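Treating backbone geometry as a discrete language has practical consequences that deserve illustration. Part of our work consisted of pairing the sequence of a single chain with a tokenised description of its backbone. We regard such an encoding as a compact summary of how the chain folds. The amino acid sequence and the backbone structure tokens for this protein are reproduced below.
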Amino acid sequence: MTYISIRPDYTLEIPAEIIREMNVVPGKKYQVIKLDDMLEIVPYHDIQELRGFLKGIDTNIERDEDRLWMSLILHFGLNIFLIDTFNKNNN
């Protein structure tokens, strides 16, 4: 397990092995996320840097039948589904 230190001026002292493995360079931005009593440090990527990184990804997803219905409900609107369900229950 690797530990880091917080200096008196509240900067983090990151071990050299993590700097090499994570390609940490001066000026690179990171997002700090507070999770209960923990801090998570995540590399920040500008939206322009992410353009095209999913090129060629397969967008066909097999869905379970209950998930398929939920997709249809969200796509066509919840009101249509509720009206249809109401009509079926009252006939």
